[in-house]
Amino acid sequence: MNERNMVSQVPANAFNFPNGKDYMAEINFKNLISTGAHFGHVTRKWHPEYAPYILMEKNGIHIINLDETIQKLNKALAFTSEMAQKNGEFLFVGTKKQARDIIQQEADRCGMFYVVERWLGGTLTNFSTIKKSIKRLQQLEKEGSKIYEDLTKKEVQMLNRERIKLADQHRGIKDMKRLPDVIVVVDANYEITAVREARLLEIPVIGIVDTNTNPNSVDYPIPANDDSIRTIQLIIAAVADEIRAAADKESVREEVIAKEDKEQTEEQADVAEVVVDAVAVEEELNDPVVEDEPAETGSANDESTTEQSAEVPVEENNSGKEDEEETEKLEEAEVK
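Now predict its structure.
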């Protein structure tokens, strides 16, 4: 029993998060006992595959081994952190009465999707149809939509009823553009349809399982009392905190990388300026000094130009004399 005090979740203040944010309240054996996480169902309702997680039987009720609970919870949280750092999307599912408010609150707190109303068959396996239904809801919610034009009062009321119904069904997944990367369920036996769809699509499932549930039906089972509101609150809040903590770690890392890239770019720019200045100085030192060459070339050009201009009139004069001689010869011929 000494391991109970050794196996515990690392407290939030062990990490340095921005803005002094603290996440992940400490989860240990004492916390789980206080929430009643160790109480299972009556012995006649137990599932044989659950035997490794049962500590004992007392007053016709199975008692869950909380050492196993802490161990499995730590494993599930480690997987949650890994997926959150990869920007994975989580879908929280809890349609039973005890879990609805908790699921919605914690999913909103960590910015993930949730289902708290009746699970619609095919939400995962027939997601294309679900997206069409969500698109229809967005059209009905759009202000000034052409759908409401030229309709009678009764037809408008029918559209409003349809909008309210779709809003209740899809309120937690209205902005979900693709299938989630991980599903978190409360009571895997109660949400068996969601679990089966996820397993069919090979989507990892984290689930709270009680003594009446097959723990092998989910990838990361957390053996605990799934009917206790405080137990559900404790475990789901730990998962949500892990998602937020991983997201903040990722944002801090991106800021550090961006800062390093900026500094590196500035250093490269400074080095380039120094190299350009050095090349310019070297070119100035290596350039030969040229004396009076342009002037000589200029005078030579001037002389050639004057010679050409002097030759042009001579040619013109010669052509004029030839014309006069021809005209004189013609006149003499006419006279004869």
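DSSP finds nine helices and eight strands in the chain.
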